[in-house]
Amino acid sequence: MKILVLNAGSSSQKSSLYNVEGNTLPQQHPEPIWEGNIDWTASNDFGTLKVKANGIKQEMKLDPNKRVEGVSKMLETLTQGETQILDQLSEIDIVGHRVVHGGSDYSEAIQITPEVKQVIHRLITLAPSHNPAHLEGIEAIEQVLPDVPQVAVFDTAFHSKMPLSSAVYPIPYQWFEKGIRRYGFHGTSHKYCAQRAAQLLGKPLESLQLITCHLGNGCSLAAIREGISVDTTMGFTPLEGLMMGTRSGSIDPAILIYLMRNHHFDADQLDILLNKESGIKGIVGSSGDMRYVLEQIEKGDEQAKLAFEMFIHHLKTSIGSMLGNLTRLDALVFSAGIGEHSAPVREATCAGFEFLGLKIDVEKDAKSPIDTDIATEDSPVRVLIIHTEEDWAIASECWQILKQN
Length: 405
Hints:
Elements: E1 2-8, E2 12-19, E3 34-39, E4 47-53, E5 56-62, H1 67-76, E6 94-99, E7 110-111, H2 114-122, H3 131-144, E8 150-154, H4 164-167, H5 173-177, H6 187-201, E9 209-215, E10 219-225, E11 228-232, H7 254-263, H8 267-276, H9 279-284, H10 290-298, H11 302-323, E12 331-335, H12 336-341, H13 343-351, H14 362-366, E13 372-373, E14 382-385, H15 390-404
Parallel strand pairs: 1-6, 6-8, 9-12, 12-14
Antiparallel strand pairs: 1-2, 2-3, 3-4, 4-5, 7-8, 9-10, 10-11, 13-14
C-alpha cells in the first residue's frame, strides 16, 4: 500500500510517501521512500522545494503566490527525473493530511468529503495560519488524483475525550456552547509518543499513566491516562500553556486589557506581540531557538540565562498541573526538537521531580539517545526520549481507514 502524507504548516509543506507491505502495520516506523519539503518563506521572492528519493537530493524555486501549483510541482517529482519512484501518481492508494483544527466536530481521523472540507474551512477563524494551507493541499490532490481517497488527521482529535472539567473555561457557559473551549493541539504527536512509550516499556498503553512533553518552537504537554488524553496545556488556540519559542503561553489576561486601554493596542498588534515576539525570543531579544539560548549562556548572557530558567519554571509548573490529573506517573516522555535534543532542558526539568523518586542517568541523557529510557535503574518513574513521527502516525491512520473500508 502506497500512502502519501501531506503535513502543511503556515509556511511549509512537508510530504512523505510510505510503502507498507503485508496485512499488519510494522511496530517500528519505516523510512519514507520519498520526501518533499516546501519552504514558502525561503526568501522574499521565492519559496524552495527540496526533494529526496533514491539517494538523490534536488532543490528548485517556487512561486509563493501559487501554492496549489507548487504542491502539484512537488508531486511531479514522484514520477519524473532522478527522484522518480512511481510510474504514475495513480499508484498512490490513499493520501493523509495533518489538519491542525477539527474543532469539536471530529474525534478521530476521517475520510475527506465535501462536508469535511466545509468544516475545515469554517474553522479557519480558529486556525488562520494552518487550516487554509491544509485546504490547499487537499485541493491540489483533488486536481491530480481525483479518485484517490483522502483522510484528515486532526491535531485536536486526540484531546477530544478530555473531561468537561478540563475542556470548559471558567467564563459564562454560553460561550462553551458557542465553541469557545479548550481543544488542545499536537495531538498526533502526543498520541504517537504514548503508543511508542508503551512499546518501549513493553506494557499495554491502557495500563499506563504518562505525561508527554512535545517541546519544539511550539510546546505542549498532555496527561495521558489509559491511552486517553485527560488534560493538555494548549487550549482554544496553540497560544495557551507553556512558554514557547516566540509565543508567550499563558499570561494574566488583564495584561491585554491594560495594553488596549493604556497603549492603544489593537487585535492585530496583540496577535503579533503574543505569537511572534514573546516567549524565549521576547526575553532574549533576537531568537526563540533554545540552541541559541544555550550558546549565549556559555558567553555569560544574563537574559539568555533568565529565558532558560523561565522556560524550565513554566515547564515544571505545567508538569505539576498534569500530575494532578493522574493517580501515578509511569513515565515522563520528551519529544520534538527541544525535547529530543536538549539534554540541559531534560536534566533541569527532571531535577524538579526527584521527590517522586524520578532520577535520570546524566551520562546517558547527555547523548540524547532516541527512543531510549534515560532513567536510572532504580527510578520508579521512567524517562523516555522519543523521536516523534507525525507523518508515520498519519500514514498509520490512513492504513487503518483503507483496511476498514
